[in-house]
Amino acid sequence: MHRSNRFPVAIASMAVLAAVAFSPASAISAPKDKDKQPPACKKKDKKCQQSRPGRMTGAGTVDSVYGRSHHVFRNSVCNADRFPDLKVQWDGGNRFDLTSYSSPLRCIDTAADEGNPRAGFDTIVGQGGGVLNGVSGANVSFRFTDAGEPGRNDTATITITDADGNVVFQISDARITEGGNHQAHRK
Prior knowledge:
Blueprint: H1 3-21, E1 55-64, E2 67-77, E3 86-90, E4 94-101, E5 106-108, E6 123-132, E7 135-145, E8 155-161, E9 167-175, E10 178-185
Antiparallel strand pairs: 1-2, 1-10, 2-3, 3-4, 4-6, 5-6, 6-7, 7-8, 8-9
């Protein structure tokens, strides 16, 4: 590049950076949640993430910036909002207990392979309210994936907020480090 061409390129680059830096947050599109189902989603649409029938159970230990955590979930029935049973404990004596779902659980089939037995899905997604260290008003969103046996490739994504909306625990696609397994089941 000739010396005379450098200046306009540098000015154009700075203009683009300034436009992005000073754009309002609403003008910058956030990544889309791949689990969101569009309202017009039809069963025959191959891209549609329809919730599948079945249930998932599991437990796992994960190491993160919050120290060692352990989660247990049972009675997680796809397309249902009954039997809330999720417990998460982490270092410092912290504990969250799910008491209600805010929407039905969704069971979806992703790129993971649930292995055997075949369930027709490998991931469960949910959210709800509960008790954090004995105080009501906390919330959780979670995603558990069954990536086959023996469970060492299974993952957990969990975000817990306190009654004021502060994030107090968060892991994202964390692999089970020891003593755990997520298991997708047909009905």
